[in-house]
């Protein structure tokens, strides 16, 4: 098998059906063999029925797997373990893919062994006008980091940053060499930390693996109205602060002093400085950006404190 598309899902059977419908009509050369593996992460809706329906309509194309352990990273790793393809492609359960997406994303990986992985272009499903409180550079920075949009332009280039999980592919051998997705990152019950994809990409880049940006591999990601609120942004930045602490792990002590303690002191010092910038910024967008930085710092502090409490109990 050349390609396995891995799609993890949880209680989104309606959105899932749309994603699978767009995948089903993918235009792939007849010489390339491919499959779609849907990993159901303990759904309670009609997810299984939806996937099995596609299995009947497209025999040998769609497979259903059930992963009872809650957490997207568990589902992703189960998909990897059960994949038959040499190239593993990852996509979200609420996107729509262009018919040429799969071919364009994987073509370089299939014919050139120098590439360990690739990331495609992820665009919003609908036209979107950012509210006044979002900075003007929304499309470049805010749209990407908060709404999982990924658009580096029209030219294929080597990636210097991690791709996003809604549109990426890696050789299966990469996971055998570097490990799978970290289960302490990624959405799970009680936590919306979402850094499992970028942590993997960063890990590969640090290890010297080469990743490619393929602009012609396009998927469309919806932008739910509930996310275009200041409350959502602040919650996202708080969780992002927590994720950054988890992603970089436990650092070595400095002259016998736990590095986490020093980082907590640093955050405690930075917090009032950022708060003053937030309170006294004249420009409204700058003021909200500073507020997000405060929430990010608070998330880092919360995670560092939680980790220090756990280490004392050991």
Q: What count of structural domains?
A: 2
User: Ends: how far apart?
Assistant: 46 Å
Unreliable stretches covering 5 or more consecutive residues: 252-258
- Classification by helices and strands: alpha/beta
Assign a percent range to the helix content. 40-55%
Overall pLDDT metric: 88
| CATH topology annotation of the largest domain | Spore Coat Polysaccharide Biosynthesis Protein SpsA, Chain A
The sequence of SSEs as H and E is EHEHEHEEHEHEEHHEHHH
Task: Identify the CATH class of the largest domain.
Answer: Alpha Beta
Strand content: 15-25%
CATH homologous superfamily caption of the largest domain: Spore Coat Polysaccharide Biosynthesis Protein SpsA, Chain A
Biggest β-sheet: count, sense, barrel?
9 strands, mixed
Instruction: Give me the count of strands.
Output: 9
Determine the number of helices (DSSP H or I, runs of at least 4 residues): 10
What's the overall geometry? Answer: globular
C-alpha-based Rg, rounded: 21 Å
